[in-house]
From TrEMBL:
Natural source organism: Acetobacterium woodii (strain ATCC 29683 / DSM 1030 / JCM 2381 / KCTC 1655 / WB1)
Keyword Signal set for record: yes
Protein name per its UniProtKB record: DUF1002 domain-containing protein
Keyword presence, Signal: yes
One Pfam family named in its UniProt record: DUF1002
InterPro entries documented for this protein: DUF1002
UniProt keywords, alphabetically: Signal
Signal sequence coordinates: 1-27
Superkingdom of origin: Bacteria
Length: 278
């Protein structure tokens, strides 16, 4: 086989793989909406729209004020995390399947994993979400924008109790993360995966489950942390949540690594094929 022919085959295989990776997302896209922080200047919004990678006016745009943010955040998130200005902006695109595709820009406290977990709690299962600000912000206020943009894009209303619980979840997980690291969100998602059982447990049984779950991640929780998580779990128990959503979130990291390993194996097989032709 000539070198030219090998290069053509490799190029075609690469294009085929890229199309296979992107086509389901493109075919699955639906309505979209942008929720902008009301205190951004026109120049700052230009930066934000660059992160969204769309032209302003391409999709519906709504505003979120600091008062809107405080509707969910006050008495749950510390004032220094809320701030006095609405600067976070979000792009939300509805999808029929595929879970949450999320990226963030200039968000320095709420992690991607925290957003994904909280959105599942709020009832958002399939969407492309981009959270951005022109300057670093905590990202707590973006939850309100995500809610409003998702409801506008889908013409639906999320459950108010679920939205409030999701905000409280971010507050609890964020404080835990400051103390114990990234396993904070894994502990919460593990507990949400057990909701079919926790609904039938008393508080002492849930406390034992919390400690047992933390132990799986080699984490020690103090009494106050256990009580904060207990309050959260009891709120989860009142919501109509699908535990499989959060089990999949726990498995997502391993699944992504598995996918890229398959890609690496694929190209290694191509290399082996060409070597055999020499």
């Amino acid at each position: 086989m000539t070198e030219m022919k090998k290069k053509k085959i490799l190029s075609l295989l690469t294009i085929f793989l890229l199309v296979a990776m992107t086509s389901p997302v493109l075919a699955d896209s639906k309505s979209a909406c942008v929720a902008i922080g009301a205190d951004n200047t026109e120049s700052q919004l230009k930066t934000v729209y660059n992160y969204f990678n769309i032209k302003r006016g391409a999709v519906e745009e709504i505003k979120v004020t600091n008062e809107d943010e405080r509707e969910y955040l006050e008495d749950v998130v510390s004032l220094d995390k809320i701030g006095t200005l609405a600067l976070s902006s979000v792009y939300v695109q509805e999808k029929s399947s595929g879970g949450i595709d999320l990226e963030t820009h200039n968000i320095d406290w709420v992690t991607d994993a925290m957003y994904k977990s909280a959105l599942g709690t709020a009832g958002i299962k399939n969407a492309k979400v981009i959270v951005a600000a022109y300057t670093p912000v905590s990202g707590t206020g973006a939850l309100t924008g995500i809610y409003k943009a998702y409801e506008a894009a889908t013409d639906t209303s999320l459950d108010e109790a679920a939205k409030s619980t999701a905000v409280e979840e971010v507050a609890v997980v964020g404080e835990l993360q400051d103390e114990i690291g990234d396993d904070a969100v894994n502990i919460i998602n593990s507990l949400k995966g057990e909701i079919a059982q926790t609904k039938n447990m008393d508080d002492d049984e849930i406390r034992q489950l919390i400690l047992k779950t933390a132990d799986k991640y080699d984490t020690n929780l103090d009494d106050q942390q256990v009580e904060d998580i207990l309050t959260l779990v009891n709120k989860f128990n009142t919501l109509n949540m699908d535990p499989d959503t959060f089990i999949k979130l726990l498995e997502a990291g391993q699944g992504t690594q598995g996918f890229f390993q398959q890609v690496a194996d694929f190209f290694q097989q191509i290399g082996s094929f060409f070597n055999k032709q020499n």
